C-alpha cells in the first residue's frame, strides 16, 4: 500500500486477463549484451532508487523498439477513476513468465541484485540485502508492461503498490512485488526529449524550518534499468511529459518470496 492520503495510486491492472504471450510475441534474444563485469548497480538515492546503466545495449533496445512498434497498443483513458493517477500513454500488457525469467536470468540483473556478481554489486551482508529488497528475491513479475509515450504524454504523480504474484511451477512459488523495474529503451540520444522519471522526497512537517527537499530527477538513458522501492515505502513519483520523440519503457517488478 502507498502512504495514506498522500497521493494517487497507479491504476490497477485491467480485470481481463492478458493474452498468452506465445500468440502475440516472439521476443528477440538478448543480444548483444555487455559483459556483466562492465555493469554495476548504482545508488541514486540509497535504499530507494537504484540504476544499472547499459543493462541492455543500444542495439538491443533499437531492435525491441522496432518489434514493439508493430504491436497494437492501448491508449490509457485520459480520465482516471477517483484516487488513480492521470496517465496518458500507450501500453501493452502481457503475462509472460518465460520472458520475465529471461529478463531476470539472461541479463546481469539477477547476479547484481542477489550479490552473486563479482563486481558491481552493493557492498551488503546477506541480511542487509534481504532487508533492502524486502525479502528473498525470486525473480521478476511475469506481468510485463510496455509503455510508449509520444509527444504530450506523461504519467502523473502517484505511488506504486505491491501486488501478490504466483510463479508457475511444481510447486508454484508465492511471491509479492517490492520494487518497480523500469527499463528505458529510448533517450535524448534517440530523439526523445522530456519523459524523465521524477521522485519527490517527503516534504518536512508543516511547522518544520527544514527546506523542501529537491526532487530527484532520473533522465532517460538507453538501456538503463531503474529500480525503485514500492509499496508502503514508495516515493511519490511521475513520468514527466515527453516533448519530442517517443519514450519506450519495459516495466516489471522485483518479486520476493511470501
Ligand atoms: O514512465 C515512467 O517514467 C514512470 C512509470 C511509472 O511510474 C510506473 O510504471 O508506475
Ligand atoms: Fe510508478
UniProtKB/TrEMBL annotation:
This protein's UniProt keywords: Dioxygenase, Iron, Metal-binding, Oxidoreductase
UniProt GO cellular component terms: endoplasmic reticulum
Ranges for domain Fe2OG dioxygenase: 139-258
Transmembrane regions listed in the UniProt entry: none
Pfam families: 2OG-FeII_Oxy_3
GO function term, MF aspect, one: iron ion binding
InterPro entries (UniProt xref): Oxoglu/Fe-dep_dioxygenase_dom, P4HA-like, Pro_4_hyd_alph, Pro_4_hyd_alph_FE2OG_OXY
Ranges for region Disordered: 1-22
Residue spans of biased composition, Basic and acidic residues class: 1-12
UniProt cofactor(s): L-ascorbate
Protein name as it appears in the record: Fe2OG dioxygenase domain-containing protein
Amino acid at each position: 500500500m502507498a502512504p495514506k492520503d498522500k497521493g494517487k495510486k497507479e491504476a490497477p491492472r485491467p480485470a481481463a486477463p492478458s493474452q498468452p504471450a506465445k500468440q502475440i510475441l516472439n521476443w528477440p534474444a538478448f543480444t548483444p549484451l555487455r559483459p556483466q563485469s562492465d555493469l554495476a548497480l548504482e545508488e541514486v538515492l540509497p535504499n530507494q532508487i537504484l540504476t544499472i546503466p547499459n543493462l541492455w545495449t543500444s542495439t538491443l533496445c533499437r531492435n525491441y523498439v522496432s518489434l514493439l512498434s508493430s504491436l497494437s497498443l492501448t491508449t490509457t483513458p485520459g480520465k482516471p477513476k477517483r484516487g488513480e493517477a492521470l496517465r496518458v500513454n500507450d501500453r501493452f500488457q502481457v503475462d509472460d513468465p518465460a520472458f520475465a525469467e529471461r529478463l531476470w536470468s539472461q541479463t546481469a540483473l539477477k547476479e547484481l541484485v542477489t550479490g552473486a556478481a563479482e563486481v558491481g554489486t552493493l557492498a551488503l551482508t546477506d541480511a542487509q540485502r534481504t532487508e533492502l529488497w524486502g525479502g528473498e528475491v525470486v525473480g521478476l513479475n511475469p506481468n510485463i508492461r510496455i509503455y510508449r509515450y509520444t509527444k504530450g504524454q506523461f504519467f502523473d504523480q502517484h505511488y506504486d503498490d505491491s501486488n501478490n504474484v504466483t510463479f508457475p511451477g511444481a510447486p508454484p512459488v508465492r511471491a509479492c512485488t517490492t520494487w518497480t523495474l523500469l527499463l528505458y529503451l529510448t533517450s535524448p540520444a534517440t530523439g526523445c526529449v522530456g519523459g524523465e522519471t521524477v521522485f519527490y522526497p517527503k516534504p518536512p512537517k508543516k511547522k518544520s524550518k527544514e527546506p523542501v527537499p529537491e526532487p530527484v530527477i532520473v533522465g532517460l538513458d538507453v538501456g538503463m534499468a531503474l529500480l525503485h522501492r514500492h509499496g508502503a515505502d514508495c516515493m511519490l513519483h511521475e513520468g514527466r511529459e515527453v516533448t519530442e520523440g517517443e519514450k519506450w519503457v519495459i516495466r516489471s517488478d522485483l518479486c520476493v518470496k511470501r
